[in-house]
Amino acid sequence: MTDAAPTSRERPLSPHVQVWRWHVTMAASILHRATGVVLYLGAVLFAGWALALALGPDAFGAYMRALGSLPGRIVFFGLTVSVLFHLANGIRHLFWDVGKGFELKTADATAIIALVFSVAGAMALWLAAAAVGAI
Amino acid sequence: MADYRTPLRRALGSGSAKRGVGHFIGQRVSAIALILLAGWAVWSVLVLAWGGDYATAVIWLRSPIDAVLASLLAIAAFYHMQIGMRVIIEDYFQAKGTRSLLLIANLFLCWTAAALTIICLLKVAFGDAGAI
Fold it and tell me: Tens digit of pLDDT for each residue in B23-57?
């Protein structure tokens, strides 16, 4: 390390993204970041909701109608999946932070659990909401 | 390898004084706060969707518990997402100008959205009880 000559010796390159084999832990990692970005936009919607509420019944009514429209519902379903996935995968991250859950089988299993939980959980929440007439 | 630390720093031996990991820890602590708030938040969205109208939302926010938890959610969420987006920007943008611009824009957006959300929530929470 101390005697390394500043030559133009070939340095090892990390594998290019195109030669990586798709794997569930990799998908979970990418989705964690992707859902984080989605939730960033979701938080802006939360701020808009609070603003509409503070502006009064007319603004709030218009905001809720936009959310209740078909595109609004699609966005909100996406946000539901994103919240649940980011939540479940975030818990995985916290376990890793204390050094647990790195075994390959455990990491695979928890990634699959997070994926299934987010999709099944979102569908269950929406079905529950539909059952009581909320949506 | 040259050691650029001053003799005093070397003698104290505390390295970076553990200040370099502030964002890393903040990200984890706000994550724990958000996990604790998640159940209440999902339940609240269901309640608000079920009522659907302005009066439901105002009455919901008049409850001190819901007003406090909604404010805490805003603080934890905007803080957490500010750090998260910061990491993404630092990963993908190497040019100093673009990177600085995006980091500042991210900071301003998160602080503005947080202030807007909390002020609006409190305005409704403290509003005239008769005027729904």
Answer: 899 999 999 999 999 999 999 999 998 888 999 99
Tens digit of each residue's pLDDT (9 = 90 or more) over A54-71: 999 999 999 999 999 999
CA distance A90 to chain B (A): 7
* One-letter amino acid of B128: D
- What is the rounded distance in angstroms from the CA atom of residue A18 to the CA atom of residue A88? 28
Are B66 and B44 a contacting pair, CB within 8 Å? yes
Show residues of chain B in contact with A40, CB under 8 Å: 81, 84-85
ipTM score assigned to the predicted complex:
0.85
The two structure tokens encoding residue B54: 């302005």
- Judge contact between A117 and A79, C-beta under 8 A: no
- In this structure, are residues B69 and B34 in contact, taking their beta carbons and an 8 Å threshold? no
Half-sphere exposure of B116 (CA within 13 A, CB side): 19
Sign of the torsion formed by the C-alpha atoms of B109, B113, B114 and B119: positive
Cβ distance of B49 and A129 shorter than 8 Å: yes
Distance CA B100, CA B93 (A): 9
Residue of A44, A56, A134 with shortest CB distance to B113: A44
**pTM for the whole structure:** 0.86
SS3 B33: helix
Distance, in Å, from the CA atom of B32 to the CA atom of B50, rounded to the nearest integer, reads 28
> Which of B48, B71, B60, B62 is CA-nearest to residue B128?
B62
Burial class of B11 by CB neighbour count within 10 A (0 to 12, 13 to 18, 19+): exposed
Query: pLDDT tens across B84-93, in order?
Result: 999 999 999 9
